[in-house]
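Appendix B, example 12.
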Amino acid sequence: MRANILAPSILVLAAVLAGCGDREPRPRVVAPAPEVGARGNPSQDIDPLRRHVPITAEITPLPMAAVENFDRRRGRAYPMQPPTIPHSIDGYQVDLNSNRCMLCHARSNAAQFQAPEVSVTHYMDRNDQFLAEISPRRYFCVQCHVVQADAAPLVDNRFEDIDTLLRAERAARAERGRQ
């Protein structure tokens, strides 16, 4: 029974091979594709993060930027934005056994070190129950809080916070009212 199923397939294959035997297949000529950069554009220097060096070339990294150490509070760009860390944290131990940040920022020590207290939300569990110690889900500070570096931005940013936008809108409305 199996021979009956294969017999038509073998006949078709034999017919195709017999028809192709008298001529050689022509080589297919294909133009080379343009080189593709990091973001899919056919260009060599499209990525500003690579400082306009072709993706095929290796570049020397820029030197590490210096960490700002001003100990001043910065404004926040949006509501609920975690505050930035205004000082160096090199050598700080933040692991399961120790959290160096809490030496200064714990409620019990903040006044002594003249440091801002950790928000009360960091002492709440996921059911909004207050705890005596920092909540385990808020224990690793650098998950949300970042150190600021004295570095030039890698990409252009024209972000404006809501207060700036509302002020501009009010000023435009007042200007239209005067006309």
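The CA atoms of residues 49 and 153 lie 10 Å apart. Helices lie at 2-20, 101-105, 110-113, 162-178.
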